[in-house]
Design brief:
Layout: H1 4-7, E1 8-10, H2 19-33, E2 38-44, H3 46-57, E3 65-72, E4 75-82, H4 83-93, H5 97-112, H6 123-135, E5 148-150
Parallel strand pairs: 1-2, 2-4, 3-5
Antiparallel strand pairs: 3-4
Length: 164
């Protein structure tokens, strides 16, 4: 299993993001939700998330979180998070940026585990709420205002993976 330092990479992020704490939270998620599988989280700026969203889903805006399922095996896939979307949502929700990053990481991981809030009749929302309580994250309060996406089709060879 990858060490906690390999679970998260940062691209075009400000120093205020507590890298060590974010990596520790990713490791907690790995141990508690996906102990037998690997995943990677990229925290980047809106520009990067806009490009990934356009390349993989054909949407021309910066999503707050994107999930890239690997399609099986012992690797779940990748999660990409916009720190700028997270900062705006954290301010609107009244909690620190760090907690919003954790919330988006959890949300993305649930997508990698095969859940989809758009099609599952509330199953993912219930599971996410339960994990938020267990992990000490703020409860969901209405729509966060972000846009998530799950990439279900294979990427064209010209497209880069979401890693750093």
């Amino acid at each position: 299993m990858a060490p906690a330092s390999d679970l998260v990479s940062f691209s075009a992020t400000p120093r205020q993001i507590p890298r060590r704490a974010v990596r520790q939270f990713a490791d907690t998620l790995r141990r508690r939700l996906a102990p037998a599988a690997a995943f990677h989280v990229l925290i980047a700026d809106d520009r990067r998330l806009r490009r990934l969203n356009a390349d993989f889903l054909g949407r021309n805006y910066a999503a707050d979180v994107l999930a890239f399922p690997a399609g099986g095996g012992d690797t779940l896939g990748d999660i990409a998070i916009s720190w700028q979307r997270a900062a705006e949502q954290a301010e609107r929700m009244g909690h620190p940026l760090e907690l919003e990053l954790y919330t988006l990481m959890l949300h993305g991981l649930l997508h990698l585990l095969g859940m989809d809030h758009e099609t599952d009749g509330g199953r993912m929302a219930r599971r996410e709420a339960a994990w938020r309580r267990r992990l000490g994250l703020p409860p969901a309060r209405s729509r966060r205002g972000g846009a998530t996406g799950v990439v279900r089709r294979p990427a064209a060879p010209r497209q880069e993976p979401p890693r750093s």
